[in-house]
Automatic annotation (TrEMBL):
One of its GO terms (biological process) is regulation of gene expression. It is found in: Nucleus. This is SDS3 homolog, SIN3A corepressor complex component. Residues 13-27, 35-44 have a biased composition (Acidic residues). Keywords: Coiled coil, Nucleus, Repressor, Transcription, Transcription regulation.
Length: 104
């Protein structure tokens, strides 16, 4: 009976040593993962920074394009050659002439 009690205790201690060695292995693999994750995080940060720079550049280009378009429209308006302006003036002129006919 005494031998049966000793045997499970010996197995228990052997199992504990195995668990300790497994824990050490896990720690090493986690450290390796941390390093990989740090590298991934850094590359994601670089990618996000690059994407943000691209976004700012595209946004700036869109702003410059819109500004140039508005300046062109203003120039055409001042020259009287803006199509939208000409259409509205023609419509106003027709309404004016029609009102003159109806009033007279």
């Amino acid at each position: 009976m005494a031998s049966t009690l000793i045997s499970p205790m010996v197995d228990y201690y052997n199992d504990e040593e195995e668990l300790d060695s497994v824990d050490d292995d896990d720690d090493r693999s986690f450290r390796g993962r941390d390093s990989e994750e740090d590298t991934e995080d850094a590359s994601e940060t670089d990618l996000a920074k690059h994407d943000e720079e691209d976004y700012v550049e595209i946004k700036e280009q869109m702003y410059q394009d819109k500004l140039a378009s508005l300046k062109r429209q203003l120039q055409q308006l001042q020259e009287g050659s803006l199509q939208e302006y000409q259409k509205r003036m023609k419509k106003l002129d027709q309404q004016y002439k029609e009102r003159l006919r109806n009033a007279g």
